[in-house]
């Protein structure tokens, strides 16, 4: 008997989908809610922010997980999860200890390191690859623009920097190709509130083509992907999932698909644009906006969204230049401080309070040396640190920083300034 995990060949088949390359087709009827197939992760990685909430190996969410005794950063259900995860965790365990706060490879780098190990461990086709194997992934290398190539280069640099101890790395071209494949075929695992839990490779799931009116949805149980019908599917029909957030109107979806997956969608939704008008609904009370105002506002909105999306990449740019400068400059160097300040700003913008705090703590002492004794820059840095610490319930550290800020501000703003009164209140309050 076949494992329940495996796709059934008599129910599903790989085929050449017109204009789309290979795809997946149903060989029998499926009803809404039917589990069509499941796919265990080829390899996976828990996102850094969820450490302690989920088991590093099986992604179970529970209280009282046990810590890795060496790095104290990975958490597990029990010895069995920890032991099974060791071939992957050992890539990071010692490295995290060595680099401390400077250990910051992107999730793509972490996932790709695991793929390289998995490729060595697994010489046969894995249960994750029954419909499509990792080697068959498309890289779309010829479609990459300079920005994407640079990102891959920086990922490769980070891979060498943080993982060098454990690898005979493949040559550069092989790595570029692998990263490009991961970018097009990797999955992010999310919880029931769509919070990001981690990244994974599900080769068989990656066989499905995209449609903006998909007939299946992929969900996750632990580190296993499950594919269920959300429409009636007849034998002979292609099975489509959606690669993107379907909230947005056609033009936005098409841009996103082209940018990330290099194709133009020709689904019914894209052809008819049936929902676009509702998705871009214009307010009906007061003065009716004119067509060119609507056009301008769509443009503005899309830019605003894009700007926010890029905030993530900004941090990578900061970190990359910090890495580079670190080869020559000390942490107290003003050029390094400038980049750390930018990185802290991005963290604040993204509400990554711990990240912002880490940068701020590195900045504030050299700042105090470089600036004159009474400086708004130094005061504001102490103030940011103080408020971050208070917000994170580190009250004694928070108070210390707030008092440093106050000492400067009582001089530069005057003792009667409302800012000063506010800080005093914060000091008394908590
Ligand atoms: Zn576990
Ligand atoms: Zn460890
Ligand atoms: Zn479409």
Describe the structure.
Its EC number is 2.1.1.354. Helices cover 48% and strands 12% of the residues. It has a 3-stranded antiparallel sheet, with no helix packed on it. Strands 4-8-7 form a 3-stranded antiparallel sheet, with helices on one face. The chain has helices at 79-99, 107-121, 146-163, 172-185, 250-261, 268-272, 276-279, 291-326, 334-349, 353-370, 376-391, 395-412, 418-429, and strands spanning 12-17, 21-26, 35-40, 43-46, 66-67, 75-76, 187-190, 196-201, 209-210, 216-221, 224-229, 240-241. It has 13 helices and 12 strands. Helix 2 (107-121) crosses helix 3 (146-163), helix 3 (146-163) crosses helix 4 (172-185) and helix 10 (353-370) packs antiparallel against helix 11. It starts with 11 loop residues before the first strand and ends with a helix. A hairpin with a 7-residue loop joins strand 5 (66-67) and strand 6 (75-76). The structure holds zinc ion (ZN) (3 copies). One zinc ion binds at residues 68, 70-71, 74, 89, 93.
List keywords for this structure.
Beta-clip-like, Serine Threonine Protein Phosphatase 5, Tetratricopeptide repeat, 2 domains, three-stranded antiparallel sheet, 12 strands, 48% helix, globular, binds zinc ion, S-adenosyl-L-methionine, zinc, chromatin regulator, zinc ion binding, Znf_MYND
